[in-house]
Amino acid sequence: MTRFLTRLVVVLTVITGVNYITWRWLASLNWDAWWIALPLVIAETYSLIDVMLFGMTVWRLKIRKGAPPPPPDATVDVFITTYNEDLDMVMTTALAAQKIRHPHSTWILDDGARPELKALAEQHGLGYVTRSEDWTSDLPRHAKAGNLNNALMQTHGEFLLILDTDQIPEPDILEKTLGYFNNRRVALVQTPQYFSNVPADDPLGSQAPLFYGPIQQGKDGWNAAFFCGSNAILRREALMQLGLVGYVKETEKSIRRALAASQTAIKKARKSADMESPLVAEVLDEVEAATREAQKELDAGKSLSEITYRVRRRVDAAVQTLVLADVEALQSDLEEIAAMELAHVGEAGVPVVADDAVQRMSRRDWSPLGALESVQAVLDALSVERNDEAQPVMPLATISVTEDMATAMRMHAMGWESVYHHEVLAYGLAPEDLKTMLTQRLRWAQGTIQVLLRENPLVQKGLKLGQRLMYFATMWTYLSGYAAVIYFAAPIIYLLLGILPVTSLSWDFFIRFIPFMVVNQILFAVAGRGIPTWRGQQYSLALFPTWIKACSTAARNVWFGRPLGFAVTPKARQSGGPSWSLIQPQIVVSALLAVAAVVGIIRLATGLAEPLGTLVNVAWVIFDLVVMSILVRAVLYKGYEPAAEPAVTEKES
Amino acid sequence: MEFSYEVRDSYAEVKADGRLNMVSAPKLREFVTDVIAGGSNRIVVNLEKTAFMDSSGLGALIGCLKAARQAGGDLRIAAVQPQVKMVLQLTSMDKVLTAYPSADEAFSND
Question: Where in this chain does the record put each STAS domain (chain B) (predicted)?
Answer without folding.
Answer: 1-110
